[in-house]
Amino acid sequence: MTFSIVAVDRKTGEAGFAISSCSWDSGMVGRTDAGKGAVVSQARGITLLRDEFFKKTDEGYSIPQIMDHFREIDKGIEHRQLGMINKTEPGFSFTGEYCTKHASHRTGEDYAIQGNLLVSEKVLDDMVVAYEFTAGSIIERLYAALKAGDDAGGDARGKVSSRLCVTTSKPNWSGSDVVIDLRIEEHEEPVKELGRILFKGLSLRDGFFFTGRLSGAEGLEKKDVILQLEAFLADKKDRAYIDTWRVLADAQLEAGQNEKAIETYRTYLMISPNMRPRLSNEVDEGKLPKEILE
Q1: Cα separation of 144 and 196, whole Å?
Q2: Phi and psi dihedrals of 278, rounded to 5?
Q3: CA distances from 84 to 94, 196, 255, 273 (A)
């Protein structure tokens, strides 16, 4: 009743999964932990197996040993489908004898793809091609695989939900190991909607990259980063980038580019008129040129 992929990027320490289904909250059957690996327990999936995977991974079990353990503790294993990957072993999938056809799986060195109640096995084949031949981060490759499965017909019953989640062994500045975790529920096109949000988010991340570079740049390097940020924001006059517009305006002003800065502050106010009182106060305090309010 679901199609999914689990994968790892052993160079970056990232691991994750992507999944879609006609079921509500399809993403609940997947889990990825701190770059250790990823697992999905689907068809008649149960969270016991999902969580037991990481417990046994921490105890040093190999994936085949974990599968043997599942057979011992789960009387309904032949009704289930599993995809598993860790930091060192190739992808592993299991499709129980009683899973609803089309039900099957595909595995590779750094991924496992599985699906049941599919329109055809082309769903899985197209997912393999998309993952293996898409360039970019594990996030982009996971989404490419999910989209390929969706484009090939996906779940025979229809579409309701999707999820993409990636964790890392190198936590970010806040201490979180979650790189991205997006869920779409009760949507006519959950995979396409996930992609829309995902690529907007990746674009925002690029903006944060430029603002981070500005904080430590000086002289000619700073002017170069300002030019790059100007080009980046040229077609992004919307509220999602409001803070990045303010960073650019401040940087232009600090660099003595007053005319550019004034226009950028005006764009900032056009995007978010509610910020006018705050900028008015800064003008009154002599921090900003009065022309931005004209």
Answers
A1: 12
A2: -65, -45
A3: 9, 27, 52, 49
Largest distance between two CA atoms of the chain: 74
Average the pLDDT over 258-268 and give the result: 94
Find out whether the peptide bond into 105 is cis, omega within 30 degrees of 0: no
Q: Indicate whether 171 pLDDT > 80.
A: no
Q: Which residues, in sequence order, are bridge partners of residue 80? A: 43
Q: Taken in order 35, 179, 161, 131, is the CA torsion positive or negative?
A: negative
CA 80/CA 214 separation, integer angstroms:
51
Amino acid letter, 237: K
80-86 sheet: strands from edge to edge: 30-33, 37-43, 80-86, 92-95
- Give the single-character DSSP code of 58: H
pLDDT tens string 78-89: 999 999 999 999
Q: How far apart are CA 253 and CA 270, in angstroms?
A: 18
Question: Quick one: which of 12, 27, 9 has its CA closest to 194?
Answer: 27
Residue among 51, 47, 53, 85 nearest 69 (CA): 53
Which residues are CB-neighbours of 171 under 8 A, at least 6 positions away? 34, 177
Q: Provide the sign of the torsion angle of the four alpha carbons 59, 62, 65, 67, taken in this order.
A: positive
DSSP state of 116: E
Contact 289, 283 (CB under 8 A): yes
The answer to whether 143 and 41 have CB atoms below 8 angstroms apart is no
Tens of pLDDT, residue by residue over 8-60, are 999 999 999 999 999 998 899 999 998 899 999 999 888 899 999 999 999 99
Report residue 21 CA to chain centroid gap: 17
